[in-house]
Design a protein that fits this description.
The complex is a heterodimer of chains A (298) and B (599).
Chain A: H1 30-44, E1 51-55, E2 70-73, H2 79-89, E3 94-100, H3 101-107, H4 109-118, E4 122-128, E5 131-132, E6 138-139, H5 163-170, E7 174-179, H6 183-195, E8 199-205, H7 217-220, E9 224-226, H8 238-245, E10 252-259, H9 266-269, H10 287-295
Parallel strand pairs in A: 1-2, 1-3, 3-4, 4-8, 7-8, 9-10
Antiparallel strand pairs in A: 5-6, 7-10
Helix pairs in contact in A: 1-6, 3-4
Chain B: E1 4-13, H1 18-30, E2 34-40, E3 47-57, E4 70-73, H2 76-82, E5 91-95, E6 109-113, H3 115-118, H4 127-139, H5 144-154, H6 160-180, E7 196-199, H7 200-211, E8 213-218, H8 225-238, E9 241-244, H9 248-261, E10 264-269, H10 271-287, E11 291-297, H11 314-319, E12 328-330, H12 335-352, E13 355-361, H13 362-366, E14 368-371, E15 387-388, E16 419-420, E17 430-432, H14 450-470, E18 476-477, E19 484-489, H15 493-505, E20 510-515, E21 517-519, H16 523-530, E22 536-540, H17 546-555, E23 561-564, H18 573-584, E24 590-591
Parallel strand pairs in B: 1-4, 4-5, 5-6, 8-9, 8-10, 10-11, 11-13, 12-13, 15-16, 19-20, 19-22, 22-23, 23-24
Antiparallel strand pairs in B: 1-3, 2-3, 2-14, 7-14, 12-21, 18-20
Helix pairs in contact in B: 1-5, 4-6, 5-6, 7-8, 7-12, 9-10, 15-18
Classes of the chains: A alpha/beta (298), B alpha/beta (599).
Amino acid sequence: MATTVQRASQLTLADLKGKVDPDWCPGCGDFGVLAALQKALVELQIPTHKVVTISGIGCSSNLPGYINTYGMHTLHGRSLAVATGLKLANHELTVVVTGGDGDGFGIGGNHFVHTMRRNVDLLYIVMDNQIYGLTTGQTSPTSRIGMKTKSMPFGNIEAPINPISLALAAGATFIARGFSGEQKHLTELIKEGIQHKGFSFLDVFSPCVTYNHDNTYQWFRPRVKKLEDDTAYNSTDWMAAMEKSLLWGEEIPIGKFFERTDVPSLHGAEPVLNEGPLVHRDPRVPPDIARSFIEELM
Amino acid sequence: MKQTFAISIGGAAGQGVATPGDIFAKIFSRRGLNLNAYNAYQSIIRGGHTFLTIRTGTEKVTNMGDRIDLLIPLNQDSMDRHLNLLRAGASCIYNADTIKPGTAADGVQLCPLPVSELADITRNKVAQNTLAIGAGLHMMGIGFAALEEALTEQFKKKGDAVIAENVSVARAGYDYAAAHFTAFQNPLPKTENRYAILSGNTALAMGGAAAGVKFYCAYPMSPSTGVLHWMAANARKAGIMVRQVEDEIGVINMAIGAAHGGVRAMCATSGGGFALMSEGLGMSAMMETPVVVINCQRAGPSTGVPTKTEQGDLWQMLGAAFGDYPRVIAAPLDIGDCFKLIPEIFNIADRFQCPGLVLCDLLLSEGRLSVNPKELDFSPVIDRGELITAANGNGDSSAATTNGGYKRYKITESGVSPRAIPGVPGHIHTAATDEHQEDGILISDEFTNPTKRRAMMEKRMRKVAGIEAAVPRPTLAGPRGADVTLIGWGSTNGVIEEACEILNEQGISANQLQIRWLAPLHGDAILEILKDSRHTIIVENNYSGQFARYLRSETSFVPNGHIRKYDGEPFMPHHIVEAVKEQLAGKTKLSVPAHEIMV
């Protein structure tokens, strides 16, 4: 019987449209992140069934429901642990993890640090709005000092974490920052992050128009400066990246802070995976190996 | 009474209790004898006190027994703690240079070894241990060749000089005993049988490998760490991805991620780690992604006594994670069963797409047992249930992006919906921890819908009936209508069995109902068995009678009495025998035996 090889038709934006429309507040920065992610996948032409979008819990973590790829909408803060397991079970899949600052840097902070040091090959996009949205406006790990929220009505007195410096210290091998208001730039960063073989961290300023009245589009627009515009900047220089990561105020850098390609990803470093993805393997232990396990006990 | 022989070796942690234990175990096993080893120890790396008991015999040996035949105290502390346990016919071998014996019971033979005369103790720091092994083996009537062979294997990695040194020291002990000590009345028998000796943790890990586990992850926690150690050591040979994770929250989520990717995934922990996994179990249930979690119980609450055993986590297992969801819980009956249970529970978890929970405990996890190698079956049935791993499901395979008509959470009569794994064309869906409708779309926000929510709850919960039908009913061991029925669960199987044998020999007829599958519980079958019982006693290793309370909640059954132990140590047969007698005599309805061995 002759087999017909179907030529995969060109992937378009329509193919990536989810079954339902986002229910984010009108004007939410997350719309821009979703659009940029869809555009990046179209430009990279990765078949939708080979992509898994994984999130935690929060406004931004609803994203997997709005994009037509395989998805997992996991527990609050646990997306990276789930994604690590999934990637190791089938490392041929493209894994994109999405979530918010509370999800990733607060409740999920431990997994964030450890997934970076493991260099798991996935892209982690944090829609960082410096506030808890779905719980109706409390202080987040990236809320600035002095910010008034329902949980700190007299102003935040705790210093925010710096996600970029933290990622550098934890050993992430691709580190970038985007802005939801800079679509083209963000799409390029997502593409680079997906293509990077290792852990890619992309912190995205994604303003919350309902609960964060300090860090708005208007606040960010004049401040963000693309690192790509600075011809002297070398993103393979870790010390330079660390220095840049500390900038905050009148000038806030966005773009690729750092990338190194000399570190194997977790699945590349583990010889167990040399024979291909675990999911395609025979579950049985070969009889001679099984016998040797028993003989060791005799 | 079973004809068995038990050796106990006591010393400080780091003093080398394990090596003589391994050597004795190897020699017994090579003689075709069964054995059970239990090490009572403390959470300390150097110092403190540790007490290893190895019991051997031609018949099945399931527990440490009631009698020590040979005591080898490696320090004064061990002598002081345990000499009083010896009864007529027993012997105690000790280093006469450093240890003073106390007063022994009548008929106990004290066997002092002049260690500094027999060996160069400046060269060999553990000479006293090796001398004692040699002396002990002579007294058991075992030829020296067996010891020479065992020592050669034990010290193989250290080279010929070390082997020769140890063999010559052992020989000196062997010959000294021949000249100075009385041998045991019955020399140790020999059979043609061959056994594998393994711990419960090794059995759990090997059972996982046999079940086709391809992903194992864990955070180290006593007494479950042995599972991680076996998995890590053999990962590359068995083709298993093994990861040590930052905490147990990460463990359960990583395991579920791998399981969702399509492989069998397993993890093991103890009560504290299991508590951290609770929310993750709910995710497994809600996403309908099967995972197997082993809880090797230790004495709680909180950090508790990390090196001591207990059956105190039953209610934690029953109540783990919030909300109602189908789960299966099983407790292995012995170390061999630790192996056998894992493929069985994976098949149920896979078929019903729910978490499978294994309730083991320190007694099995860290104990050692001789098992017939035929019982370690690496070709068990592997039933992955309704799993779609290629575009052959109910989606349209040609429609890679339009997705055919595939509904991941399709409402079915059995409650089981065919599960497509990521990567399969035509079956794209999102699995969510939020409540969802058949196609995976959330019904927790703008699409919230009470009718759909009810339908999904009922779909998931319908799986419980299927699980119940898949799980075998418990059976009664021994004749119906006995004077007393002892009811236990999990690891107490062997000791209750032996207590029944002793009671029967003493003229009290006893039978046993041991529960292996805890949830779903076959309540009707249990009531049917117990309706003929004349006096029922529930035996369990916890304070509050967790199983008794569970059985009552499921069946309204109330037993005549309880035997409980919560001092961290396992039951010995005589604890149960004596408690049964006092309860049959009407003295009490709750017996809490005191443990005589102080570690």
